[in-house]
Amino acid sequence: MAPAADDAPLRGLRVVEFGQFIAAPACAQALADLGADVIKVESPAGDAARAVGWTRDAYGPMFTAYNRGKRSVALDLRQPLAREQAQRLAVGADVVLQNARPGAMDRQGLGAARLLALAPRLVYGQVSGFGQSGPASVRAGFDIAAQAESGMMSLNGEAGRDPVRVGFTVVDALAAQMLTTGVLAALVRRGIGGRGGLVDVSLIDVAIAALSNAWAEYGLTGAEPTRRGNGQPMAAPAADVVATLDGMVVVSAYTEDHFPKLCAAIGRPALAEDPRFARNQARVQNRQALLATLHEALGGMRSDQVCDALAAAGVVAGAVRSMGEVRPGQAGVSADLFVDVAAAGRPAVRVPGLPLAMDGVQRGAGRLPAIGEHTDEVLAELLG
User: Fold this and answer.
1) Residue 331: which residues within 8 A CB-CB, separation 6 or more?
2) Which segments in the chain show pLDDT lower than 50?
3) 246 belongs to the catalytic site
């Protein structure tokens, strides 16, 4: 594993991760990218993410996304010696991360209360699906369940049709970011006052908080937001999709000063005075007529031409791209955002690296550890 840069913000910190799937491993990945030494403790069978939807090798897509640059230690925590070694690793760390079901780590002697009693400077981060206590806490904590129970799916999809999940594990990703925020805040507090502590995150709380704007709308209007496909229920055009010569663009110009700019940019300045469109409420009521007019005006242009023209006018627009159409350095994407992730026996895979720029932090290639690849190395360090 490549050493962290001398001025990497987390250089010298050790993170011990007892994680599977996404939430805890993705947080640990961010800490590794910021310079921490991350030790991933796996069972002898490995993180279950290694094999999710994958049979070619021990490095499936989910594992590839969130585990580069870590050191892997394989321990069978059913065995007393392995539990003792894991406990010593955890107590000697700066940060412990886990996303096991509530109670599982306590049974292994690795729960927050015990470890924080032994190591008060430790920062202990944990993720659950539905909290650490109460009847729902025993349920398996998976992204899709949180999407469903939070109200997120009720807002996603077309009106009059079944709810639709967001097309990727959005709650897991958001939970990882929230856990990372909490861990970094706890490390700052430790640096000031010397005390570590517990950072507790649940998927259900994260999913609900992600809908804060919808909750505010609900509270102010008294009407539950509903799914309606593209567009926003209280503004137009806002996140509305318009077909172009070679694809689609999404357009938002719902403020009263932006809409005339849109009309001028598409060569239809008189639309701004049309009674059907002159005010936002009228545009919402006549959304289909508005979209038909926008399609007529933009349908003969390429998506890039539309985006350039609207951007020049100060109007929000974006080309609707497939993943295969996304390019580093294109449309504001950082030229070095993607990094090579290597694994034994296969070519490197390109995935996004840490999506922030910071002095002392460089996005770079990483390698995935084999199951238990660093067990002897790490245990030798532990035993001094």
Assistant:
1) 307, 318, 319
2) none
3) no
